[in-house]
Amino acid sequence: MNLERTSIILADDHPFILFALKQLVAAETDFELLGEAATGLQALSLVRSTTPDVAVIDLGMPEMNGIVLARKIREERPSVKVLILTAYEDEAHLKQSLAAGASGFVVKRSATTTLIPAIRAAMTGGTFVDPLLSGRLSGLTRRTTIGADELSPREQEVLKLTALGYATKEIADLMSIGGKSVETYRTRASEKLGLKSKAEIVRFALAEGWLA
């Protein structure tokens, strides 16, 4: 009897963590590890060449961060489920991950007990949120699946300039629009993305690669 196996790729720039993840995956008889990567570009190349069922990717990798990578994977290989692995334990990174199309958010310090359930949840069409976060989050709705590509060009531009530190009047001058329009675009974009502060806007812009 042939057992259909879930194919997986792993991406993390820390060798010890990558080794630990490999051990977790290898212990599951119905999982198959197709490859591993240490940078975002390596991971994207691996996904393109293997089209795994699940890609487990670190949020903070060299060359391409996990949010941008997740978006590219979802665009190029929509059948691939993406799980974000991170040391961050805040709502902003969770929202950005889900907005990028990730099927799960796993905190590294609990990965030994949560990675396997997260992979299985993704394979059944679910969304896994690490229990370290899910217990203290409120108001996380399906609107978090809206990403920057669903903002209007002006909403994106206002958020980008805000993240760069420009004041409302400066943004108005740069875009040749009124100050009230700037505030409207910023408010509308922030509501769509679930961003509640300037710090969250900056983090989102970084994750999108807008500030590179």
Features:
single chain; 212 residues; alpha/beta; Rossmann fold; Arc Repressor Mutant, subunit A; 2 domains; 10 helices; 50% helix
- Figure out the total of helices: 10
Amino-to-carboxy terminus distance: 51 Å
The biggest sheet, with number of strands, parallel, antiparallel or mixed sense and barrel status, is:
6 strands, parallel
Shape: elongated
Low-confidence stretches: 138-145
Within the CATH hierarchy, at the fold level, what is the topology of the largest domain? Rossmann fold
Classified in CATH, the superfamily of the largest domain is Response regulator
Describe what you observe in this structure.
The structure is a single chain. The protein has 212 residues and is α/β, with parallel strands linked by helices. It has two domains: 6-142, Response regulator (Rossmann fold); 147-208, Winged helix-like DNA-binding domain superfamily/Winged helix DNA-binding domain (Arc Repressor Mutant, subunit A). The chain has ten helices and six strands. A six-stranded parallel beta sheet has the order 2-1-3-4-5-6, sandwiched between helices. α4 (91-99) links the parallel β4 and β5 (104-107). α1 packs across α5 (111-123). Residues 138-145 have low confidence and may be disordered.
